[in-house]
Structure formats: C-alpha cells, structure tokens
Design a protein that fits this description.
Elements (H helix, E strand, L loop, with lengths): L1 E6 L3 H11 L4 E6 L2 H10 L4 E5 L1 E2 L2 E2 H9 L6 E5 L4 H9 L4 E4 L4 H15 L7 E3 L2 E4 L4 E4 L2 E2 L4 H12 L5 E2 H8 L9 H15 L9 E4 L3 E4 L3
Parallel strand pairs: 1-2, 1-3, 3-6, 6-7
Antiparallel strand pairs: 4-5, 8-9, 9-10, 10-11, 12-14, 13-14
Helix pairs in contact: 1-5, 6-8
C-alpha cells in the first residue's frame, strides 16, 4: 500500500488530487495546515507527501525542512510561485519534485508514480547507524563488522523501522506492510514474534532493547539515529 499525505488548504484541490490518484494500492490522509501535518507525520509512516507552499499557518517549505530532519520520503511541492529562486530553494531544501499551479492532474499522477517507485528504494544502498551497517539491496547486515543473517520478513520489518527512525510506526501499519501476500488475516502474534527475533539478533540485551523500542499502545520505533 502507498500511504500519501496531502498538505493542501484548498479542500476542492485536495479532493481533486485524491480523485486523480485513486487506485486500490493508494490510501490518503488529508491535512490543511502545517500543525495537522506534523501531527500525522509523528504517528504515521508515509510513502509520499504532496505539499503546498502557501498554507494558513506558515510556509510549506518550513514543513519540508522538518520532514527532512526525520526522513527521506519523497516530497512533491505544489506552488503558485514559478520564480526560479522559489524552485531552487525548494529543491535545495530536499524536495524531490515541484509542480507550479495551475497544473494538470494527469501530470501530477505521472510524477507521483515516479516518486512512489523511487520511495521503494529510498534507503541508500548502505546505511551506517552506530555499530550497524545495513545494505538492503545486497542483503548484507553487520554489527561491529560481524554479519547478521536476517529472514526476508525481518528485513522488511527492519527496513520500515529504519526508514522511519525516530518516529513511531503503528502495529497495524507494520502488519499491512510486511504481510502483503494476500493473506486474509495475519495475527498480531506474527509481528510480536518477528520483533522478538529481530531484537535477539540486533540488541545487546534483547529484554531491555536500545534500538527497537516499544511505544506502548501504539507500535514500535527505531531509536538509534
């Protein structure tokens, strides 16, 4: 599933974006200002953000800066400003693409498709976090230069947590994202077991985890940045 956050105060345009992008694999969260967007970003891992620059409570580029401090999820900026300096500023702050208003919803759909494909490979080929070195493309995982063998399910779980490090990922989102083989029902125990196995392989003291922390009542977070 692709979870898309739309930050656009024009309700008609926001609804139009959903109509243009609507398909079975896309789900949407609509927010209309920076404050509400930050609340959603704190609790939900998104695959793409469509971000208007002119918002009621501030400049959308400030929200872009906030996002880039936490994650590298793709961000498409919507702006009524077609000045070269505005475009350059957005790209320098980490926007993946920009579209100036008014725009064709078909063009937006095409550009969103490009960014969603990129988001599946949004982690660098090799990422270093403290004593860990993870390469998801080569499926090589090391702690203190010692190889760690991870199952495909454990790799999926780790990748989601790493890509949203510092943020809480809900149990429901993890279950939906990891078990995508068409099974009608996957018990929550499957996630608990996978979390335990991953902790056993990565943590120095699995019963008192430093890296994969439980956020009670919500989900899990990767605490090492």
């Amino acid at each position: 599933m692709n979870h898309i956050l739309i930050v656009e105060d024009d309700i008609a345009l926001s609804n139009g974006i959903i109509l243009a992008l609507k398909e079975p694999n896309n789900v949407f969260t609509q927010t209309y200002d920076i404050a509400a967007a930050k609340e959603q970003l704190n609790v939900t891992p998104f695959d793409l953000v469509i971000l208007d620059v002119n918002l009621p409570d501030g400049n959308g580029l400030d929200l872009l800066t906030h996002i880039r401090k936490k994650t590298m999820i793709p961000v498409i900026v919507l702006t009524a400003n077609d000045m070269e300096t505005d475009i350059v500023t957005g790209l320098e702050l980490g926007a993946d693409d920009y579209i100036t208003k008014p725009f064709s919803l078909m063009v937006l759909r095409a550009r969103v498709g490009v960014q969603l494909k990129k988001s599946r490979y949004s982690l660098a080929d090799s990422i270093q976090l403290g004593d860990f070195s993870f390469s998801f493309e080569r499926m090589e995982f090391n702690k203190n230069d010692i190889p760690i063998e991870l199952s495909k399910t454990e790799q999926k779980l780790l990748r989601i947590l790493i890509n949203n490090r510092g943020n809480t990922v809900s149990r429901d989102h993890l279950i939906d994202s990891i078990w995508t083989d068409g099974a009608e029902y996957v018990g929550e125990n499957a996630l608990s077991v996978t979390i335990k196995r991953l902790r056993d392989k990565l943590e120095d003291h699995p019963s008192s985890p430093q890296y994969i922390k439980t956020v009670y009542g919500l989900g899990y977070t990767w605490a090492l940045k």
